[in-house]
Amino acid sequence: MSAPYRVLAFDSGIGGLGIVRAIRALSPHIRVDYLADTAVFPYGEQDDALLTERIISLICLAVARLRPQAVIIACNTASTLALDALRAACPTVPFIGCVPPIRWAARQTKTGVIGLLATRATIRRPYLSRLHALYAPQCTLIAHAAPHLASYAEQVFRGQSVSEHAIYKDIEGLFQHPDSARLDAIGLGCTHYTFVLDLLRKLAPPGISWLDPAGAVARQTCTVLQTLPPIAADSARRPEQAFFTARPQDAQALAAQLPAYGFNDICLWDDQTATPSCPA
């Protein structure tokens, strides 16, 4: 893709930056703004009704303010909860969701036993049951909620150490099911987990394929953008920015990692003003 395009990637924290990285690898001509709802992180532990209302309000404001050609909901919890409502609220904007890779796992498995590692919110929603019934009815699904893994991923992203024991305790339920011995494909059901993927591979039994949807979401984004006209020159020149709805924990350590993803610094998002605040 040689023409300029502009998208907004949205997540509760840093998880969506894995998708941003994949987009930049596929097409450096795509301009990306990033919005992390750090004020209520982690999404996987929030009330569904309040979270849905917040997501719709925040994204509608971001669409009006940043004028993206497409929006990537780079968060499984937000996608399974609010994707249909967002499409109804902003019908002229394409939305690319990030949903549990059940179909991919069903195609990958040789034993018929697949796994999903996700947040509590994603695991408990009927959406997951529908995916299982639609795309993998012949497979046994071991779905495990890891309540702390997204927070551990945030620490690893910042260059901080997390004990392997703590990570294993959060995922060991995958390997305690009666059919776990035949488990051979595990999907990542939270975009944060891409940043602990090497540790997951290390700690899991051998012979398991770990499926990270970041690349697939990036490719779908490029496919969607190719159906749209390029952006105007003034929009193409606007700097790409990483917005956070609250100052993130260990902000200095996080900011030090952002240039690798194409962003210079943390910008604080303000719902009440026309222009979010960024460092001078």
From TrEMBL:
Signal peptide: none annotated. Its EC number is 5.1.1.3. The active site is at 75 (proton donor/acceptor), 190 (proton donor/acceptor). It is an enzyme of class 5 (isomerase). GO terms for molecular function: glutamate racemase activity. GO terms for biological process: cell wall organization; peptidoglycan biosynthetic process; regulation of cell shape. It catalyses: L-glutamate = D-glutamate. Pathway: Cell wall biogenesis; peptidoglycan biosynthesis. InterPro entries: Asp/Glu/hydantoin_racemase, Asp/Glu_race, Asp/Glu_racemase_AS_1, Glu_race. It holds the Pfam family Asp_Glu_race. Provides the (R)-glutamate required for cell wall biosynthesis. PANTHER family: GLUTAMATE RACEMASE (PTHR21198:SF2). This is Glutamate racemase. It comes from Acetobacter okinawensis.
